[in-house]
Each structure stands twice: as C-alpha cells, then as structure tokens.
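Side project, low priority. Logging it here so it doesn't get lost.
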Amino acid sequence: MFGNRIVVVRRGRGTALAAVLALGSALVACGGSGGSSGTSATPATPTAHQSTPYATAPADSAAAEKEIKANWKKFFDPAVPIDQKTALLENGSAMKKVLERFNGDKRGGQVQAEVTKVTFASPTGAHVTYALALKGATVLPDARGSSVEQDGVWKVSVRTLCGLVRLSGNASPSPGC
C-alpha cells in the first residue's frame, strides 16, 4: 500500500516513537473508515474527493457562544420557572422530572452558573467550562459540561444535568440519567 517502508533501528524509544508517529500520520492522511460510529480521520485541507474540511464550529460561532452563555445563565437561575428551563435543556420534555427533582432539591434550587469558556466540538456541540455557585459562593470554579444545539436553540446537555444530579448526593436520579 505504501511505497516507502519504515525501518526502525534500535536506537531507543525515541526512534521507535518517531516511526510510529510517522506511520500514524501517513494513515490519517489517507483517511478511512472510523468504524461503526461513522466518524473518520479527516485531512486538514480538502482533497479531490472532499470539497470542504470538517466543520468544528457553527457558522456564526460568536453568536452561538453568546447564546450558550445567556441560556446557561437563565437555566441555572433559581428565579426562572421550570417550564422556561425545560426549553433550555436537551430533550427538555422527556427530562422534566429530572429537572424538577434537581430544582426541588434544597441545594439545586440555589445553584447558579456562569460560563467562562466555550469550545466548539462540532457545529451542534460545545464543551463548556463554567463556575458553579451555591447561594452566591463559587463551589466549582472550573466545572465542565456541554451544550448542544437542538431545534435551533443552544441547550444545556442532559449529560451535564445528570452529572450535577449525581454530585448533589441524590443516589437514585430519575429515569433519563
């Protein structure tokens, strides 16, 4: 398959590691199937069979980041009613019971969050770093969660809410987590 062969001369781990990295780079550059998940290694620049590179952010990432920050602030605001929070949670209708239990918990109803960093993983997914406060005191300064774009709205992910439910000490979170 490759015209060049890589020959490793025993000069230590550094040489072997360099050879493995070179081979790995060659394989990634050739592309290929990523298995059943449908993902694949994609070259950084378009090739003859690929017209555009894989997008790792929404078209307007600044607007998406602004929306994520605003929606997270609102979702974690104790004064916002459950129905409004449901609209800001991934699969909100199906997760309403989990959200009610989280907000009904003494501590859950006193939690606020401020997003400090957003890193896009795809046009519809983002990693979120946020500061979590309880009664105004920061308890988790570098908490990590995720946001997903669903139905045209950037929402707090189910995974994030379920992680917080587990942190709250509720040993048996509602179905959905």
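Brief comment: The longest strand covers residues 137-150.
Revisit when time allows.
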